[in-house]
């Protein structure tokens, strides 16, 4: 493909970047006992705002990477990002996937359609020779890149190789496809500004010419180079034989209807040419990718055609991530928690690798970092990239389930694979480059090229839902929406992405219903047609947020005394759930990749204003009261708990009341972590306390009750924000900490074993939202900052920090009252009343219960001199197991233990009466 300059329309792109990002700049640190930092002021929201807006604090992970001690000179430290990603993907990597099948499955160019120019493909010999003798190695550190090799001479010749092959591909196909043209770009250490971090990838395949200012939004895929001068010799193959690709047999899935496959049996795989007896690779079979998420409960099954690969045994995750702060910026080697997946390279035999090859190397982590950043921008379902180490190229694919890397191939000795790779990328359409298959891009004719606004603002791009269900469950078809991103950056209508290409990866997109669609969903007035679409990838068998919202609406609507609270719960106009196959995800076409499966859920809702858009303390108070009452009405009618109450999830809108006056209405949004949890009763709550105490390390010196030494607290996700992607089976069997760290109740943060989520835990989260907002909100700029100490990696450390602050009145005053703006300082009295009368007494009772437990354990220890070893062993076992019946308590011969359990029952009853809806609203 020619490298000549082409007309570009970057003026709007520059305006958009100036208005929208980067989101993290050098920020002042603040005051007294809490370290408060403020983001730059966002743009002023319009009269009516919506869910997708940049004034909201970014996701918890982005807050950590942008605002905590990880932040240095306004940009996230490389080491911290890599540490986070290493912990996140360590058990989600599938390696050595067949190279040809990888290219075909991911970028969508069938091997039979690979064409060649009249005189065949040729490698540029001079560039290859220069590359063989050249060097280039960059090591990223927190202070910027370090170049161990003074001469970075491999950059240019490698670029010449790629450019030469691109030009030959252009000559081979002659007719360009309309739409996208991904061109190879040598970055030369240029910074790629992003929503979350500023990085310097070595290479890009971009929709922009090489001389233009590059953007993640206009990037097809990214690349990384590691080249040493002492590279081993290689045999140069000048003439490229693409028949090695074109004539390669294709594997097909084959299932025997007479012998249904069990969940432990992989699908049969044969080649088209060799028939059923053909072996796959001859020696090794692909193993399944595993995930650290627990397997979902067996609720339902979805048909995935004949591809039913077997799940591999789940390997334990490392409990601790070792420090990565080496002086030279390199990363230590980590043992892989999962075996690598190996399939044969059909074009060339797969090289045997040692077991050490399964560890994540520093080079691999580097390219994963760039691809993750690419996957965090725009409306994408996956992202791709490539890593070159000396002569070997490895192709990389990242989606919401994990990472897949191809078998490596030698670009000098196997140039047919390089040609196929470049041809597939440069001929790929939008959906084959990772953009969501729900998007319908405009017809590029007559210019045969889409303008940059198509990807920076999604101008003239539509989101099309083939089928969806409304709030009542009725099925509607052929629904389309225009993506409505503000071109000048003066409003809040922007796409809000999530940091990470993995997991749920929620994206909120401002949309406008077409005339036909608006009629179908009854939003005909023009002002009501501006909506938002929430797109996320959730574990397949987890209850969907749309189903939870439907149940809530049904129960509230049926209760005449509470139906008015429907206005305080997020509205749902449409929802659809689509499988990986329906979303045309490459993973669905790949062999040997198994659970966990995720599905794409799309919810279309009305627009709302963020909490930061409030105009007065009176409005804030009204909004806060609305969501408190609405949340209580939901639990009363449907027993559903939100479990993720946070600043981001409290929003509002304006409406005219009966008197024609404009008033605010608070709305509680984001019910994707919500769960139906009936009140468990005081006995179960008591058992939660005992479970926490018995797994604690705070035992009397020299006394470790039997069975406790192996108990460990619930393993936390590396970000410290434990989401609710993991499905829960039974309340008392499998429990997880859910929510956003700074707002999680202290019970959930401090208990050594995650407790049953109670109504009062959500209520306490409202208290911490109140504290956070009043302490960090600046009315002049309508922006909300963060409290640095509440954004730790470790949830328990957040709990200890909040608990210590709670107990010290002076520190509390200095941290909250002194940082609050003058207008909102009047709410500090309400907050302090809640602290002193409800929240602090709640945790004093917790401390008292823990002390009583330790006293009982000491008494048992003192009985060692009077009881037989068998009796003592039984007592210790009992002390480390929660009593489940009164009979168990009465059978215990130790008076101290029986007294403790009786006292604990009284304490639990007293404690549960402290923080209730009535006591909370009375204070507020």
UniProtKB/TrEMBL annotation:
Residues 339-349 have a biased composition (Low complexity). InterPro entries: Kinase-like_dom_sf, Pkinase_fungal. Pfam families: Pkinase_fungal. Residues 22-32, 257-266 have a biased composition (Polar residues). Residues 17-55, 251-359, 701-722 are annotated as: Disordered. Residues 358-679, 733-773 form the Fungal-type protein kinase domain. This is Fungal-type protein kinase domain-containing protein. It comes from Cristinia sonorae.
